[in-house]
Amino acid sequence: MFTTNHFIWMGISVAIIGILLFISLKFKFKKKTALLIMVGFSIASELCKMFTRIHPRYDDAGEKVIGGVLSPSALPLHLCSIFIFIFFYLAIQKNEEREKKIISFFVPIGLIGAFSAILVATSGVRFDEVGPYQCFIYHSAMMYLALYYIITKQVDLGLKAYIRNLVVFLCLILIMIWVNSALSVYKTNFFFVVEPPAENLPFLNMDKGWYVYFLRLLLVGFIGETLVSLPYIIKELKQKKREKQKALQ
After folding, report:
1. CA 224 to CA 72: how far, in whole Å?
2. Are 157 and 112 in contact, with CB atoms under 8 Å apart?
3. Fewer Cβ atoms within 10 Å of its own Cβ: the N or the C terminal residue of the chain?
């Protein structure tokens, strides 16, 4: 599963995350500054993906015509890609309560989702192709922003946020079943609900059929969300317990 190139890319990802975190914490970046850094990475990533995955157009007779179209599989409809729009929204909106909820949803995805993308490397690991650069650098930036929010204590992942995130995640998964069905002629696989992100994965595979794979996919998402949120939930429950005991005294 892992090759020398893959290990090199993972090392590069760690370096990017470390450098961005060091600079942000060293110079005490404001929340908006860190977010604008992510916006910059998002723009570069999406433009790179767009202009390297445009294909020629063909007429009804199969003849090549002038112009090109973006491959539907390159649309920003994967879970990590959807955040491109959310980063822009966070940069301009001023509702703190709404921002808090969005950040609480982003952080688990930014950690678990981006880490999984780096680990699986669905865009390949070759250095003479553009895809790996776009994939590894963008997901490294996502992990940086998520860690920045955690380190600077700008995220609330209590019990309410945990339940809300699970509901939103499940709804998005179900919606993507419809989206992939509508675009099945283009063989899209958004959210990887059609098939695994890579072959021969130890747990996320089709060995026992699609339904088992789909349930495993949901389980992975549930476990990831739980692992990130659990420390916050425990802290919240302990705080409520202390407050209750104090009120009884």
Report:
1. 28
2. no
3. C
Is pLDDT above 70 for 66? Answer: no
In the numeric block, the tokens 């949901």 are attached to 218
Tell me the three state secondary structure of residue 54. strand
Distances in Å between the Cα of 67 and the Cα atoms of 52, 54, 59, 70, 127 are 14, 9, 11, 10, 28
Q: Which distant-in-sequence residues (6+ apart) come within 8 Å of 221 by Cβ?
A: 169, 173
Asked if 225 contacts 162 with a C-beta cutoff of 8 angstroms, the reply is yes
CA distance 117 to 137: 11
> Which run of H or of E encompasses 146?
helix 130-151
Rounded to 5 degrees, what angle do the CA atoms 218, 141, 168 make? 30
Q: What is the domain extent for residue 150?
A: 4-248
Using N-to-C axis directions, what is the helix angle for 96-108 and 210-248, rounded to 10°? 130
Calpha distance 133→70 (Å, rounded): 19
User: 189: how many CB neighbours lie within 10 A of its CB?
Assistant: 18
Closest of 76, 79, 54 to residue 67, by C-alpha: 54
- Give per-residue pLDDT as tens, 183-203: 999 999 999 999 999 888 889
Q: Give me the number of domains the chain comprises.
A: 1
Q: 């930014």: which residue's tokens?
A: 110
pLDDT tens per residue across span 5-63: 999 999 999 999 999 999 999 999 988 999 999 999 999 999 999 888 888 777 777 67
- 69 three-class SS: strand
Q: Which runs of E-coded beta strand occur in the chain?
A: 54-58, 64-70
- Rounded CA gap, 133 and 47, in Å? 12
